[in-house]
Amino acid sequence: MIFLRYESFRSYLKLYPVTAAVIALNMIYFIVIVINGNPNEGLHAIRYGAFITNPKLDPYGMLEPWRYVTSIFMHSGIEHLLYNMFALLIFAPPLERLLNSVKYALFYLLCGIAGNGMSAWTNVLEGGFDTHVGVGASGAIYGVYGAFLYISLFKKSRLDEGSRKTVYTILIFGVIYSFLVPSVDLWAHVGGALAGFLLYYVFDRLNTHRNKVL
Fold it and tell me: Pseudo-torsion of CA 64, 59, 41, 74, nearest 10°?
């Protein structure tokens, strides 16, 4: 089971530097936001970098595109933060080892951005009239799940049976949870998972081609 963590704290930092840095950034930024106000209050979240779209003025959030990234490191409350950080702590390390830290950092950011992009796009398609405010690392985390889904389906030799079952269970539970909880941005999860699935495919193909050339 690749998702069981046995490393010491020092070994974890050494083996998975990007994952450790991302967790630290999320926690530090959450503390900064909490010290200065309520992280679950819309205007306060926007002030600190939440992703925001307006159907009339800025449907895709492109007036301030940096929010596509900053919002990935924000959370609306302590439960939201701890749930996502636990997911990163457990599930991200094997992917960082598979991709290497540089590729994984790029992968993580792109999946988070894709999650926000999918959320904005679906809001436009649904013809909503309300301003949308989003925060959270879930899109990027579902990108990790999407990558493992690709591996489970097309590179089975890289995962043991228990790990594959864990991936399927998490994704099924995640979809059900996203439907049942109104505050959860389902489409951000879907966008992140799709991005993770496709990005891992691209990285895997590039790596295969590179090995053939060598």
Answer: -50
Residue keyed to tokens 């994952």: 19
Could you give the CA distance from residue 161 to residue 1 in angstroms, rounded to a whole number? 8
pLDDT at position 211 is 62
What radius of gyration do the chain's Cα atoms show? 17
pLDDT of residue 116: 97
Interatomic CA distance for residues 179 and 182, integer angstroms: 7
Cβ partners under 8 Å of residue 134, min gap 6: 50, 51, 52, 71, 116, 119, 185, 188
CA–CA separation, 110 vs 66, rounded Å? 13
200, 146 contact by CB (below 8 A): yes
Q: What is the pTM of this model?
A: 0.93
Beta strands 51-53 and 132-134 are antiparallel
Structural domains present in the chain: 9-213 (1.20.1540.10)
Tens of pLDDT, residue by residue over 19-43, are 999 999 999 999 999 999 999 998 9
pLDDT below 50 — which residues of the chain?
none
Tokens for 171? 């994704």
